[in-house]
Amino acid sequence: MQILIIEDEPRAANQLLNKLKTENFDYQLLTVIDTVEDAVLWFKENKSPDLVFMDIQLADGLSFEIFQKIDIDAPIIFTTAFDQYAIQAFKVNSIDYLLKPIQQEELNHALNKFRKSNKQLAVDPAILKKLLGSMQTTKKREGILVKEGNGFAQIRIIDLLYFYSHESITFGVTLSKRYIIDETMDQLFDSLDTDQFYRINRGQIISKNSIQKIDSYFNHRVKLSIINPRDQDFIVSRQKTSDFKDWLNH
């Protein structure tokens, strides 16, 4: 049984593999892929695996985007930290899903469903493309709740220059202040207008309005000069550089 894992969090991928071992699931791991771009390249160059575990939120976008660029005939079990994605993906077709953190019992259920289906969990690319389109056109938030003193305050999204994560805490920065935000980077980015905000790497999200200068950086990356950087370096990851440049041109 050859499996492929599409997951941008190494810890989550390792946890899944450990749980598969607990289930005595006989498998050969082909590889772990963490971006939409690399997944598309892999499917173009390799024979389809017997089963794919696919995270919905990847480092460079939603995994549903993979289906816009290539047809996949392998059975897929989605994994996600977001209930709304899990419910939508599950309703698409006879596709199963695992809500993070993955529970052993739920994994067992998904594997049993896979076995009973004679390894034919159908994926309808047309429906997934429609689902992706509906997600992309969803109205994005205009404000965000931040911690301030002993309470909370509402800040306009347009006033945020960038967001970053440090020691599992999410921060939002304006021209004059830094705020603590009680959301993960994944949850936050999913709610932002992607015409105005871009996730340059796993730990940083920047707005177009915050960029002052763009410089070439080693290993085919780019480094950004940002308003009020607060000792942060802003480097666009290699796999996102091309997409980042496209984002700036729109």
What does this protein structure show overall?
The structure is a single chain. With 250 residues, this protein is of the alpha/beta class. It folds into two domains: 2-136, Response regulator (Rossmann fold), CATH 3.40.50; 143-248, LytTr DNA-binding domain (OB fold (Dihydrolipoamide Acetyltransferase, E2P), Beta Barrel), CATH 2.40.50. 30% of the residues lie in helices and 32% in strands. The protein has eight helices and 17 strands. It has helices spanning 10-22, 36-45, 66-69, 83-92, 104-116, 125-136, 185-190, 241-248, and strands at 2-6, 28-33, 51-55, 57-58, 61-62, 76-80, 96-99, 143-148, 151-156, 162-166, 169-173, 178-181, 197-201, 204-207, 211-217, 221-226, 234-236. The strands form five sheets. A five-stranded parallel sheet has the order 2-1-3-6-7, sandwiched between helices. The protein is globular.
